[in-house]
Amino acid sequence: MFSGELARRPLDRALLGAFAELVRSQAAAAGAPAAVADLGCGPGHITAHLHDLGVEAFGVDLSPQMIALARRDRPGLRFEVGNMQGLALAGGALGGIVAWYSIIHTPPERVPALFAEFARLLAPGGQLLLGFQAADPGVGVPQWHPHLVTPSHRWPPEAIIALLGRAGFVASARLLRDPDATERLPSAVLLAHRPAPTAVPT
Ligand SMILES: C[S@@+](CC[C@H](N)C(=O)[O-])C[C@H]1O[C@@H](n2cnc3c(N)ncnc32)[C@H](O)[C@@H]1O
Q1: Which residue from 36, 93, 107, 157 has the least number of CB within 10 angstroms?
Q2: Domain residues of the chain, as ranges?
Q3: Residues 17-55: pLDDT tens digits?
Q4: What superfamily would CATH give domain 5-193?
Q5: Which residues form a coiled coil (predicted)?
C-alpha cells in the first residue's frame, strides 16, 4: 500500500532530502560514512529513497513478512528484522535515524524510552527524522486511532517535540501537512538532532 506514496508527496521528499543532505555533510566533515537506520521500514521504500539520495541506509522492521517483502523488492539493500525499542547496535553507531509512521504503533507510555534508545544509537550531531499522523488541532495528548492493521496513536507535534527535548534532542524543523487526496488525516514531519559537544575555549 505504501510503496509508491513518495512519488506524490513533494513536501515529504523535501524533508527527506534535507535530512539526507545534513547526514551527508556531517559524514563528509567527519571523513567517514554515516550509517542511517530506517526504523519500522515496512516495505523499504524510504530506505531505497535515502539510498538514492546518497546515504548508507538500511531498514529494520519488527515484521518478518515486511522484511521479506523489502528484501524481495530491493535486493541490493540491507534489511533486518528487529525491534526499534532495543536494537543490538553499539551506542553512537548511527549518523541518522528515520522513523516514518512507525512511532505511531508504540504505546504512548513507551515513547519516552523509545526516544532514549534513539538518542543512545545516534552519534553526537546525528539527525533524526520522524513522520506521523498529527492529532486534531487543540488535542494536547496522544489520540487513539483505529489504524487499518493495528492500533496506533496520532500525536500533537508539540508533545513529540517536548519528549524529544527530554531525551536530549534539539528540534530544528517541523512540517504540518494537510491530507492529500489519498489520506484522511494531517501529517507531521519533525527534524531533530542530538547536539554535538561544543569546544569550550580555555
Ligand atoms: C505504518 S507502517 C510504516 C512503514 C514504512 N515506514 C512506511 O512509511 O511505509 C509501520 C511499520 O512500523 C513497524 N513497527 C512498528 N513497531 C515497530 C518496532 N517496535 N520496531 C520495528 N518496527 C516496528 C511495523 O511492523 C510497520 O511495518
Answers
A1: 107
A2: 5-193
A3: 999 999 999 999 988 889 999 999 999 999 999 999 999
A4: Vaccinia Virus protein VP39 (3.40.50.150)
A5: none
